[in-house]
């Protein structure tokens, strides 16, 4: 059951905001991240995210693919705890550059608009740290965000809290997220994310938005 307020009369509800003022953030569905959760789960989560991407575009929402910059020049700040781990990824990227790519099932379809990709420096967790994203959200008049990604304890939690602090209404797509740590995803969606964000499954979100 959704931990969400789905009433267009409630100013805290995502349904109080029009689809054109709503953006979907698809975060870190990159092969290097998907490899950590196993093929079966990755296939399911990516499939749901892909379906929600198509639904959002049909609704007239802007979709942002928020990715970790895996280019050769991208490096975490030296003080980041990610710095040492990133050196291991850099070696792998040389042999298997596809690890840094977004899942093919979710990759931006060039002929579709509005669908954009934004990158953030390795070591930054919140998608709102993606280069240029804050400016584009402001320029488009976005007031509400629907988010999904991997991992739940990483980009999803960090983005949900950062976005709430900046005044956005945030809705988490529960089944378009997952975490490689056993049991952590369920705990976060049940007991943590709902304190600041609306949490619902993809089906619950689609059903709720039918009135808009």
Automatic annotation (TrEMBL):
Annotated keywords: Hydrolase
GO MF term list: hydrolase activity
SUPFAM superfamilies assigned to the protein according to its UniProt record, in alphabetical order: Isochorismatase-like hydrolases
Positions of the Isochorismatase-like domain: 22-191
Family stated for the protein in its record: Belongs to the isochorismatase family.
Record's protein name: Isochorismatase-like domain-containing protein
Species this chain originates from: Cladophialophora psammophila CBS 110553
Organism lineage string: Eukaryota, Fungi, Dikarya, Ascomycota, Pezizomycotina
């Amino acid at each position: 059951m959704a931990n969400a307020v789905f009433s267009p009369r409630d100013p805290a509800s995502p349904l109080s905001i029009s689809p054109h003022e709503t953006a979907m953030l698809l975060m870190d569905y990159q092969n290097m991240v998907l490899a950590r959760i196993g093929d079966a789960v990755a296939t399911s989560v990516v499939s749901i995210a892909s379906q929600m991407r198509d639904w959002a575009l049909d609704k007239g929402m802007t979709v942002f693919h928020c990715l970790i910059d895996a280019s050769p020049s991208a490096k975490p700040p030296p003080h980041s705890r990610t710095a040492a781990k990133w050196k291991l990824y850099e070696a792998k990227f040389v042999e298997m550059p596809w690890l840094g790519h977004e899942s093919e099932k979710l990759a931006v379809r060039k002929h579709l608009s509005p669908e954009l990709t934004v990158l953030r420096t390795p070591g930054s967790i919140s998608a709102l740290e993606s280069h240029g994203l804050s400016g584009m959200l402001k320029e488009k008049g976005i007031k509400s965000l629907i988010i999904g990604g991997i991992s739940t304890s990483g980009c999803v939690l960090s983005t949900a809290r950062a976005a709430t602090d900046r005044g956005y209404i945030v809705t988490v797509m529960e089944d378009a997220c997952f975490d490689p740590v056993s049991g952590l995803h369920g705990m976060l969606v049940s007991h943590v994310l709902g304190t600041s964000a609306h949490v619902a499954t993809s089906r619950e979100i689609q059903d709720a938005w039918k009135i808009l």
